[in-house]
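User: Could you write out the 3D structure of this protein bound to 4'-deoxy-4'-aminopyridoxal-5'-phosphate? I've included everything you need below.
Assistant: Certainly. Input first, then the structure.
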Amino acid sequence: MNYYDQSTQIYLNGSFLSAQSAGINVYSQALHYGYGVFEGIRAYNTHNGSRMFKAEEHFERLKNACDRLHIPFPWSIADLIESSYKLLEVNNMRSAYIRPLVMSGSDMHFSVPQQSNILIAAWEWGPFLGQKLVNLTVSALKRFDAEATGQIQAKISGQYFQSILATNEARSKGFDEALLLDKDGYIAQASSENIFIEKDYKLYTPPLGQIYPGITRSTVIAICNRLNIDVEEKPLTLADLKDADSAFLCGTATEIIGVASVDGVQFPENWTETLGATIQRTYKNLVLETENYEVII
Ligand code: PMP
């Protein structure tokens, strides 16, 4: 797909400029060492206008990740949110995927950066894995060990080579997405989504610790609490997964997507009757800000 054309604008350090003319810093640690941090946010075309879902939470997470990596973050979150809306406006977009990226400045040493740059790009993107149920395969790669990196909760650019390799491995074998185990062999997550399984009308998801703490994952837990759906965070084995009634993945780009099978083992429950399908509908209503209408109707 084309992410931009001659008319596409991006936001770079306080100004809007053409995506084509945005030069990159060839001495940036972000480019050489992956020492940058990014976010993924969705804007939806709602009856209240174009609305970014949980924008503040995403930018707060970006700032926290920069703080953890000692990357300067001299911007106000309110300004970045306002600029993101402006970016949608100048690109004439109502629903879009928005990608803020903080890059460290010029320095080829291994010292923490003194200076940083922020860019925000937006493009039109449907659900990342499509809308059909997905077939997963367990990756030969283990999810990064939280203790080895110390930064499991930061969306660090350099870590994403693993997601690319795992996804590529899965696709080359005819699957849609890769599932990664943690270093102890428990289920961690998919390459860019968190996972929930359903067993006997209850949902389970791996606990925080060895997983990326997704905003969608916490939204799903909040939905469960509101709908009185039992949900528990606990370590899950592959046997638990293969014995489940159903499963789904969740993430900002992917939203909520049902899983058809894991390495050829199909889930027995009809997706439309699963708790995951209820969560999927509720999530859609939440992001489109239509939940109150549903209640009224
Ligand atoms: N895990 C990884 C590795 C991710 O990149 C993402 C996408 N940000 C997620 C999980 C889901 O996180 P979120 O729900 O905050 O988008």
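The mean pLDDT is 95.
User: Perfect, thank you.
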